[in-house]
Specification:
The complex is a heterodimer of chains A (164) and B (330).
Chain A: H1 6-14, H2 16-23, H3 33-44, E1 51-55, E2 58-64, E3 71-75, H4 82-98, E4 104-109, E5 114-118, H5 122-139, H6 159-163
Parallel strand pairs in A: 3-4
Antiparallel strand pairs in A: 1-2, 2-3, 4-5
Helix pairs in contact in A: 1-2, 1-4
Chain B: E1 3-7, E2 11-16, E3 19-24, E4 27-32, E5 36-41, E6 45-46, H1 49-57, E7 61-65, E8 71-75, H2 84-95, H3 97-123, H4 130-141, H5 149-165, H6 167-171, H7 189-210, H8 231-253, E9 262-265, E10 268-271, H9 273-288, E11 290-293, E12 298-301, H10 302-317
The chains are: A alpha+beta (164), B alpha/beta (330).
The complex binds iron/sulfur cluster (SF4).
Iron/sulfur cluster is lined by residues 15, 17-18, 147-148, 150, 152-153, 156, 158-159, 162 of chain A.
Chain lengths: 164, 330
Amino acid sequence: MVAITGTLVQSYNICKRQTWLMAHQIVPDQDHPYIEIGRLLDEETYSRDKKKISFENVVIDIIRSDEGDIVVGEVKKSSKAQESARLQLAFYLYKLKQNGIDAKGLLLFPEERRRMPVELDSDLEQELEHIFKGINLVVSMSVPPPPQKIGYCKNCGYREFCWA
Amino acid sequence: MKKAIYIFSSGELKRKDNTIYFENEEGQKFIPVENTSEIYIFGEVDVNKRFLEFLAQAEIIMHFFNHYGYYVGTFYPREHLNSGYMILKQVEHYLDFEKRFNIASEFVSGASKNMRQVLKYYINRGKDLGAVEENIKALEERVGNCKDIDELMAIEGNIREHYYKAFDLILGKADFAFEQRTKRPPKNYLNTLISFGNSLLYTIVLSEIYKTHLDPRIGFLHTTNFRRFTLNLDIAEIFKPIIVDRVIFTVVGKNMITKDDFEKGMEGLILKEKAQKVFVEEMENKLKTTFNHRHLGRNVSYRRLIRLELYKLEKHLIGEEEYKAFVMYW
Ligand code: SF4
């Protein structure tokens, strides 16, 4: 059994090969411009009301807590990978719930001035558990799934690793 | 894009806020840390622990050369891309003779093929190097039949001896006659250039290894004793003909470096500072040059090519694709 992280959940939705590589601590190319942008965005946006909390192997940003609600915010560069971002956030909510905290989620796309609420209902929970099984299957493979050219490859930090 | 910084003058390197700060009698200079990938020190430079900590945090690696241009060592900050999985795979391929030999022999035959490509280039330009090329080819065919790594190393030494002798015809400069390979200390002008260029390449490959999950202490062709970097020596074999030797042909061929650029040191010949700079600059130009990479289908620089080679090795180690050394085809 592999320790499931938000990044693994997110990648599982994009590319299974990526999931395998990440789970084997083969991290993507750090010179990759998109990674830089991601880091900057994280540091500069919403710094006002952001608190980081970490538990187990997850670090999450709690950005606001109005009216007693705990809201977990996740900042994304663009809504292109919205589906995987949604699942990643759902995973955080799932983790929090396991720890006895009921929270709501909010995906933020500052560059598009857009936000999207995410709520953990039983459907979403089932979807997640299904993904956990899938991740375990992929990660237990002795070699990574072969690369397949998909749209995401263009911006992927593993691009050169996969296609060298 | 991050850049390599070369420091030839003497002075002090310090941390100032979030920049690297270089100071000497002539003045001061700020080097933004986020634009720096690695630092090469040729001059008499003082650093302190605070500065080293800063480099480690910024994941910048620093190479030292002594006053004579000889490689001294590297400040290699604690690995930041650690994959226990990859290290286990690397060790597994080191300990298993068959596995180790396969990788090591690919380094030797890849290097040899690249040397032959260099020769072919000059054969096409009318140089009488056909016999040398044939000799090397014959040696290359024996690579697979070696019974151990020592024998492999001996063949590779033999190949290189033939190849370097061809430099006399390629360069056509009496001052830069090859004679024989002498390393520490190099005894003639050409050997001094080869040694200087190779040392530079070793550090460049080391810098690229730092950005992967490979452990530079575990080489396959060069024997590992876990106290020294050896994987960079292995990978450099493939790129010496493509990068270093072509820089040598340029700087000697265009008289950018002549015999007046050397002086007699205590231990043999030394490349003067001005010529070291010329060489380093030419080397940087080469590394920055891009070309169309057939497999990737887009332009990559020579420096990037080294990284791709490391990725290929990683893929071999995790068992997904057999490693084939890069061979230039132009
Ligand atoms: S480059 Fe493409 S195949 Fe490789 S990990 Fe990224 S998305 Fe997957």
